[in-house]
Batch of 3 targets.
Target 1
Amino acid sequence: MRKLLVLIASLVLFAGCAEEPSNQPSSSGGGGAKDPCAAKSLSTVAEGKLTVATDKPAFPPWFQGSLKARSGYEGEVATEVAKRLKLPIEWVVEPFNKAYAPGPKDWDFDINQVTITEERERAIDFSDGYYDNSQGVLALKETPVAEAKSISDLKDHQFGAQVGTTSLAFISSTIQPSAEVKVFDTTNDAVSALKNSQIDALVTDVPTTVYLRDLVVKNSLVIGQYAPTEQFGMVFEEDNPLVECVNEALEEMKSDGTLEKLEQKFLQDYLQIPTLE
Amino acid sequence: MGLPPGAEPVPSSSSGSRGRGSRMFGGRGVLVSSASTIVFFALIALVVALAPGSSLVAERFFEPYHLNRSLFGTVTTPSVVGAFVLNIKMFLIAEVFILILALVVAIVRGIPGPVFFPFRAVAVGYTDLFRGVPLILVLYMIGFGLPGLGLKYFSSQSEVTYGVLALVLVYSAYVAEVYRAGIDSVHESQTAAARSLGLSRWQAMRFVVLPQAIRRVIPPLLNDFIGLQKDTALISVLGPIEAARAANIYAAEQFNYGSFVIAAFLFIIVTIPLARFTDRLIERDQRRRRAGAAL
């Protein structure tokens, strides 16, 4: 019996002791900490570098190149942020569905075309927006849906989208199709369904639709885009003080034109898609 | 398997001479078992409650607001309970086909004679193949492969149909083996006796072997069906919105996992009665066998 009591006591103690704040205030460096965003005083997951996560597979134009040296729009935005924080960058893989799980993270932020919404902000912290996103509609040429000129023309067609995307919410709240939308684990699966004519049209962000049209789905076209109503933001664990520093870097990149330059470099083709009313 | 008659463990009456003492021990037993149960669960609750992230997990998984909203759906997310109807439908339809196809495979596998070798070979090949390939791969191959072929009838079915087809193919392979075990467990003398009474080989199978075999395998069959009930969730990879997918959509939109708790709960309230029913059948079967042995 006494052994049992000891066991209970130690378990309780163990559980109590496990409590440890994961984010220490970032003022450990030497001397007077003037700039909280100076490389030395930043507390990152892995000391001395910025660990950035994204999902796999990652698509152009958001990501290009190898895991070690990521390019593409999001790849370079993150790299530029790291440069401005004066930290080397390291990429890791994090599935989208896990990015908002409770518990400590093994990355500083996740950059994965995540749309900023109020509901999501209750669970995690977002950086400021780094891209104004609009939804694009992809279909095969010479199918009835390809003739659509407005949102209401789309109503009576079978739609598909990737789970977890705001495209899915866009379909059900804005297009409001008569047939239940089909939902896939990955964009790749949705593309297979489109090629097989299991769905008439696929909705995703405009740059991805254009990439799919040009390089993945033969004989396809982007019917149109819906004016931007949302922004992509980087995902941080709740109350991570690093957000402020990343926002500062993003603000600088906006005002000195770096973001716009990157947009033009990677996302230029997407400005010519007609807008759906 | 059965114990020899008389060797059955008799828990309480063996200590007849102690009379009241045994009753008192029984009372103490109840006390000890309830105390240890309370301590056991209190301990688990304590460890979970004191865990550093417990309030975070409570909020992310068990917040009533999210449980409620995911259960009934929002403008942009489907209702989890509504989607669960699809799971039940797929389960019921697949079950019927599985019972039939698996029985055919099991019987074909047991047909004797060199002429029937190709049939036996097909049956063996089928079970080997579909027991060996993970269900999710079969789902992908059928769900995206068949429509891709561009055939007239086979390529224009709904995703739910392809999903059910994949479930039937995979689970029939398992269930065929369960049937075969049951058929093999019926002693050869039964067939011999039936044949000597003038029954044909098929009649002996139909009227003598199968009734005994199927009764014996009902518990493992139900066990497979509990698995089937859960695996209907995998069909979501093809696009249809069933309970797990509906939960996933909610979780991804709201960044809250409460919807998964709801979906899990729905699956549990369907499988638990099935599991208890299986237990009851096993018990009844054991009682009958003991009664038979005592004769």
Target 2
Amino acid sequence: MILGISWLVWLIALPLMGFFILLFIPARAKNALRWGALLTSLLTFGAALGMLAQFQVGNPALQQVVRLPWVRIGDLTIEFYLGVDGLSLLLVLLTAFLTPIAILSTWSAVEEGVKGFMLFFLLLESGMLGVFLALDLVLFYIFWEFTLVPMIFLIGVWGGERRIYAAVKFFLFTMFGSVLMLLGILYLGLQTRTFAWDALLQQREVFAAAQVWLFLAFGLAFAIKVPMFPLHTWLPDAHVEAPTAGSVILAGILLKMGAYGFLRFNLPLFPQATLQLAPWMAALAVVGILYGAAVAFAQQDVKKLVAYSSVSHLGFVVLGTFALTAQGLEGAVLQMINHGLSTGALFLIVGMLYERRHTRQMSAFGGIWKVMPVLGALSLIVTLSSLGLPGLNGFVGEFTILLGAFRSAVLASPWFAGLATLGVILAAIYLLTMFEKVFLGPVRHEENRRLPDLNGREILTLAPIILLIFWIGLYPQPFLDLIHPSAERLVALVQSVALAAH
Amino acid sequence: MSLSDLMMVLPIAFTLVWALVLLLIDLWLPRERQGILALLTALGLAVALGLDLAQSGRSGSAFRDMVVLDNFAVFLNALYLISGLIALALGYDYLKRMEMERGEFYALLLFSIAGMMLLTQANHLILVFLALEFLSIPLYVLAGFARPRLESEEAALKYFLLGAFSSAFVLYGIALVFGATANASLTGVIEAVRSGSAEVGFLTAGAVMLLVGFGFKVAAVPFHEWAPDVYQGSPTPVTGFMAVATKAAGFAVLMRIFLNLFPGLATSLTPIFWGIAALTMIVGNLLALAQSNIKRLLAYSSIANAGYLLMAFVPYGNAQVAGQAISSMLFYLLAYGLTTFGAWAVVVALEQAEGRGLTLEDYAGLGPKYPWLGVTMLIFMLSLTGVPLTLGFWGKFFLFRTAVAAGYVDLAIIGLLTSVISAYYYLRIVVIMYMRAGEPRVRRDGWLNLVAIGTAAAVVLLSVVPVQMLELTARAVLHLP
């Protein structure tokens, strides 16, 4: 808390304040704009650390709550209602952590329209943080929809060749999902006379009859965002066409909004429907894991490969979520963070290669380690983290999820975990093949011989991520401790319904 | 007629007299000093607006219950008068550079506004018909104001023929209602319906005929065919005025008559309203997809928006949500009006002589080249799509809330899915403006910029405090004499 204003408010307000300051910096002062945006996002990260310092570990309830009435319509009030608990805390931190890194990565990659880029980036950050902090359903929807606007610009203006197609597809897919969620929100509000998350939780019985429909209305929006098979087709386009920083944020954070939505809304608000549909969701998740991995293996374009690997990795998150065990949920949240870190880093690496060679075809590389040893070494760590090598972060998340899925009473079948394990093996195959084709072997192309290795700024963008990769991999306990109480409570809540049903 | 009677219609009377004075002044004014007329018209509208707002909170009837005054009328009259002011701002430079500045323009605009206000306050079916003609005839002329351009003449003729056609429906409906109740005064009809002396069959037929007639005015499907051609052919400031004010007037009379006279017929009329609302949303949005001319695209968008408004009106017979329906419809009209006028201002800025500068391709590169105009158009498109942090989002939110509260989840689903379709064509304009290279030609004009920036600021800033606006519309209740 600073000046009597909660950290949560600062988290949303700081990027907006930066936005308004940047508005008045002339477009030709490119460096001033870059530094302004970076400084803003670093301050925001500072606010996130402030929030972390105040967070009571071990308390499963919502904390640091900010609650103000906003729009009063008859007897229904839309509130400006923010709060944080174990499910959202790490995601907020991840958002505030990745944004400055993404901005730093654009230093030389974005030369045209720096002002617009930074303005949209700060708007996006504010919107994403709002999504993770909002506890009023309408407020959540507003932030959720609002993130679309800066993102289509980031893809559509600063993206690759088919950027317009990708941007429009991204917008329409997401909007299609979210309008039905809006309908669900309106229905909930009119049935219970409240939009507040915890008040709805108390009144679950009121809308118990419509649970399956509500689950589907919310679930469609989240499943598109995650994305779950077969709703994933927007993702490869958006990822491939987006500029590097856009891909980092898209993979690192936007996809997590969908997974987080399941955790925050579907599980606790519609527990009967969750129990009923969990095997189906888990089955789709497993299909996504295997399908994403198989398609990733077939790619020639590194960025596409990473994009499809996201489909596979996010499948683990959904599987862990619908295993409905404490381990599964903890693993799911941790895997979200891990995926944000390792895939974010992979996209940064792809971006660094692309800036030097202006191609992403694996056949254009080979033997890069010899030319760029620093990039090679860092890439190896990131690749190993992404494929889940023990000792690095990816392993902890995936292992916890598989353990949770294996022990799950709801899924009640070892097949889910068994097949998903195949995904881990496939990930090793496609990621190592990619690494081999790009970095190992002889230098096959003359133009690759004189590529400059990473400069200080580039190392600075990767270093913090790699630090966390090791930290989570070697000593994950502090992170799990943050998640555990809230995950435990959520599972207890869903399980109590299961018991009542018997 | 007493003085208190006159007080009830003071804004109307003032507007009429002012229009006549302007006609006289025009006779003495040299041709090159027509600009003075525009300023005088603006002055007149501003005074009328002041008179209108001074009436807020008052209610009553006058001229033996021929007209009523209520907050509903005050709100809508203000909307028409402000629309008139904005249309003037759009036209100030436009009329000059398109060489169609003639003094009649201003008087006709005022006549039409007076007709709208009369239509909103009318409490007698004959007066409703009279006011409907009174607002329409000046508009027929205004639609053809770009004469001798063929498109404009075509627009005027089409508007006139279909307008006359729809008036016939209204008249027939009035005759049937009169036949059913032996009364043409709204108060009398309500009394007859309440006492059970009304002949239900004729009354229903009359209501349907009235619905058809008003359906033409608000451009609801399947009575929308005229709108794209008329919107395209008319001088753009007139088009903007029609899209906002005429539509609002059509909805005003629809609300007053159906809520007052036919709540009892809701069971038989609701399926018709349901069908028209669903069709309007679907057809309007689908046809907008195929447009390459910005004026036609906005015309179809205005049809689709009429569909959203009608969606909230479907449960009009349900007393529990009727009040909510009115306030959310008025809110939407205001949100839509601000957004649309802004968009039309941008269209005017890009329009060149001979109807050039009106294809979507002419907007390529607008965003980077003219940041202010680009951002305002972006805001209008987002607001029309219903993206949060714009008034359009709250407008849709309140309309859908009404539909869901009344139990029309099916209609709400149609509305929400069609708004995803609409996202495609609104987004296309954004994409063309920001993501395609081009050399747009823009007319720099202070009044246009004022309208575009003013409405854009309103659309964004008011969205932070939507509740104050909603309270305003919630107070705009209908008064029964």
Target 3
Amino acid sequence: MSEPVFLPAGDTALVVQFGEAVDAAVNRRVRHLAAKLRESGAKGIVDIVPTIRSLMVHYDPLETSAGALRGAISDLLHHEHGEEDAYRLWSIPVCYEGDCAPDLENVAREMKLDTGEVVRRHAAEPLEVFMMGFLPGFPYLGLLPEEFDIPRLFEPRVKVPARSISVAVRQTTVYTVECPGGWHLIGQTPVEFFDPERAEPILVAAGDRIRFEPVSVGEYERIRKAVEADDYKPVSEEIVP
Amino acid sequence: MSGFRVIQAGFAPTLQDFGRPAFQNRGVPVSGALDPVSLRIGNALVGNDGGTAAIEFRLVGPTLEVTAESIRVALTGTRAELIVEASERVTLPSYQSVMLRRGQRLSLAPVSDSGVAYLCVEGGFDLPAVFDSLSTYGRSRIGGYHGRALKDGDELPLRLSAVEERGELRLERPVYLDETGPMRVVLGPQRDYFSDASTAAFFDAEYTISREADRMGMRLEGPALEHTRGYNITSDGIVTGAIQVPGNGMPIILLADHQTTGGYPKIGTVISADIPRLGRMKPGDRLSFTEIDVEGAEDARRAQEKAIRKLLDALTPAAAWLDEAALYRENLISGVVQVSDSL
């Protein structure tokens, strides 16, 4: 695997780039370095943001410097080995029917599959949270099977309903709140991924894995009511490989 | 609960402190003051910690009525004056702390010299922090006052219901408002998405800040930059000051409310020492760029910090403003002033 490169991002952030394309193995290296750097307690770091193919380290130039951080990170990379990190595995109910899935038929047509098969393949394996971005608590997950390599919508929607599950370019996202969006909507979860009123407003983090569990419209509505009554907690378990 | 009543909100003022920089890994934008230097100075004038949340406003400021027994405020970021409506209407300079009492109203002269200004209040606002910050982030409705910009009729609660009478402070010469010159830029992380000719053109050109400028970003108008490797990248991290270039080649400088990740190539990043000045710029202003390396940028930031501390050490006592007409009236009522005195 290629050596990561350091890229400048001004005097308050530094990029460690592991690759340029979407690749699960590259993303694991990014997240692994994020965890190691967090553990190292290196001085002057403001935040460590793993993205799909690179790590952004935000720092305070009054406390440290890009040079010092490059040194600390190089040491960590030197000791990099292929161990797998522990992760949280979530079970998240998703309704892939009716109003919850306005783009499912188009997606199925584009993928040359029937809708049931699209759902089966989307929910087949736990997906990894590659990165958080776009909005608070908004996860990008992957990698879906190759047949999900479909482009984004030609014309983005002005309003995507909150909790929509979307697909494009072999990835899937969960829209945390109603907002504009350009991905295909194939389902909706009753679970809130972002709720500012909750003790832990944000549900998932980069490195978590999510198994989507198909549920009927009736089941979706039942869980939704329970969520609104503060009587439903999504399940997760700690997995140590 | 008492503090301020918003009589007229003006142009969507928000509450801002130093933001929430430690939650970008969960997709939470930093937000915070567009001009953190003016925020720090304003807070120092009213005796607060530098990062206490203040009202940040753009172009047209709010009109507020004091509902607390007394408050102390300071206006910074602009040379526009503070207008107080008490028994009479008085104008007071910015960069000076002022004590006001219940029922008095304050507003601001039109702000034409700056894109952003701050009204700092002693003790700060009695509102809940979200991700350790009071900064308003409207898109996700978090922070500030119910997660949104202020509106007419809002009742803003303050931590202090009254402030002590004491000597006021002023900053005689807010020299940093006069900074000029090109914005300093570190090239990267995607400088290789632009030809050398295009990069050279970027540094030669003068750009105008378009009307599409808000707390999230500033669209520039000027020569289009040419991509050599397309304009889509696999999303990576974004830092405040990043200059992203979408398909039309027109640079956008990302500011406090920027998303934490993005998929457009970024030719460079405006250095942190120039971010406060950038924050004070407004639509129609012109700007240009010059290249600097990371070490130079870090040195510039340290030098700026020294200069700010010097300003904070240079606060001097100011004459307290007294509502003389009200005092006079009180005296008349209590009979201390003799009719003969006024003859």
